[in-house]
Design a protein that fits this description.
Elements (H helix, E strand, L loop, with lengths): L11 H9 L10 H8 L5 H11 L6 H17 L4 H11 L6 H11 L7 H10 L7 H12 L5 H11 L3 H11 L6 H11 L5
Length: about 200
């Protein structure tokens, strides 16, 4: 049996310990380097578990590259669940803010996953620092405005984001943009009242 198919003998605590040790070890064969090597080969269930634990560390360059590659591949193939995309977003949340990361997050928003509640929630709660980039914030707000959960989801997520000072100012700029969609205008009106804009 290969090591990758024997994952189910390892409990969640064991996976968490392994991931946390990624930052404690260094050298030729560190846990992080091993994880970066196998990350894209993990079956769905352990991939999701590992991804949710990665959000608690700051991945190095090799692991960051593996996470973003897996995220891009999953989005382009459109064969995985929104839950897996959400888990990968959580893993990507602590990756350095690079053009590659912003592009990967943008590809999620521009995919069929862009309006899924768990994906929107992961972007808002875990990747909020990346939303400071206008090229990501604008499409995020547009997708949030048309999410299938409706106005309540828009209101809850915006209420949380408006407490982050940097995002508050940037969001208000986007709200006042003449290029915003009718859907976003309606969602803003639904939250603040029609007289807000």
């Amino acid at each position: 049996k290969s090591e990758l198919s024997d994952w189910n003998t390892l409990g969640h605590q064991g996976i968490a310990d392994y991931v946390i040790r990624c930052q404690e070890e260094s050298g030729k064969a560190s846990n992080e380097e091993k994880l970066a090597t196998i990350f894209n080969q993990l079956p769905d269930t352990p991939l999701e578990a590992v991804s949710t634990f990665i959000e608690h560390i700051q991945p190095g360059a090799a692991l960051t590259q593996s996470i973003l590659l897996k995220l891009n591949t999953a989005v382009s193939e459109e064969k995985v669940s929104a839950n897996q995309i959400s888990a990968l977003l959580r893993a990507a949340s602590q990756c350095p803010e690079t053009e590659e990361k912003i592009a990967a997050l943008n590809s999620v928003l521009n995919s069929r996953y862009g309006t899924e509640a768990e994906v929107i929630a992961a972007l808002a709660s875990r990747c909020w620092a990346s939303l400071q980039y206008p090229e990501l914030l604008q499409p995020f707000l547009e997708k949030l405005a048309i999410n299938p959960t409706g106005q309540e989801c828009f209101n809850r997520i915006m209420a949380d984001l408006m407490f982050i000072p940097t995002l508050r100012a940037l969001t208000l700029q986007q709200f006042r943009s003449p290029e915003r969609s009718d859907a976003l205008s309606r969602a803003i009106g639904g939250m603040f009242g029609d007289g807000f804009l």
